[in-house]
# Entry
Amino acid sequence: MTFSNVVAACESASTPQSDVAAPKGRLTSLDAFRGLAIALMILVNSPGDPGNVYSILGHAAWNGWTLADTIFPAFLFMVGVAIVISLDKQSVEAESHPALMGRILKRTIILFALGIFINVFPGFDFSTLRIPGVLQRIAVCYFLVCLIVLKSGLRGRILWLVGLLASYWLMMRFMPVPGIGAGVLEPGNNFAAWVDSHLLKGFMWSYYGGKWDPEGIVSTIPAIATTLFGVLAAQWLKSSFSGGRKVAGMISGGSVLMLAGLLLGHWLPINKSLWTSTFSIFMAGLSVISLGLFYWFIDIAGFVRWAKPLVILGMNAITVYVLSIVYAHTLWALDLEIATGEKMSWHSYLFGHFHTHLGPKMDSLLWAVWIVLSMYLLAWLLWRKKIFIKI
# Structure
């Protein structure tokens, strides 16, 4: 399969089909992988009881990683893949540079604004506004990586990636923090947290006492590198090699990255909250392997039917993600007066009647599964109505 087929297949993902998986030669693997990431993101974000969660679905307390920690970097990686496909198509159409930059800037602003919206919804209390967030980081990474892709070739992109990872490593290890020193990597006591405490003071996540933010300014540097890994993966898919060789290269390359992340982790721990350089490297390797396997099973071997639900989710990924958060926040915010005269949130009331006698953690998980299925139903309705919201 040539990359022109890949691009055409990806673009056809935005066109309604009677059967998502049917068209031959269609690249459904990227949509399917994106759909899986969104499904897992909603699952992790929507427990019935946040205090009763299986460890694999909770983020690592500090160093190390769990399944939950793999989701966001995988999504950023796919943003990088999509950037190459999107910009290649736009260059073929000979779109003017100002128009192209306008489109990129518009999407960046929409993503960032949506992130701010879900941070203040439903109370809209801007006095406690959190500026960083998942969508905000996606917006920044998307914008800057688009600029890098437009202004540099393969060599330049590799240099940017290495430079970003190395510079972050050097900052975290050798930049002295007043009252703390250099090389300290403790929660709230590190260079990234120190910068955030000055530049984002009063606008960070209250969960950590407003002292630092996991989607802060400095830790976005290696997140940009994560997105660039996706760019390089897309360029590999763009090559003229056979499908089998592409998959073999992705699996072997991804394995090398994972091993490198683990080995380098002895000097700089794998840590999602800091988004350390080793975390970026390790998770990029995992994402490369995952996309390679999806590409093999779906686009080469033709095992596509199982992926249809994931593709449907992936077609309206950001929309479904935003609506899942709005739905969850609404349930927590709306009060219900029960027979005793007490008030409780709709979430507490509904989950209080959601018992399976399988234990509190399983109840919490099944509630999250129900939320995922509800969002899938919404995505399916959008797909059936041929509504694809491009953000």
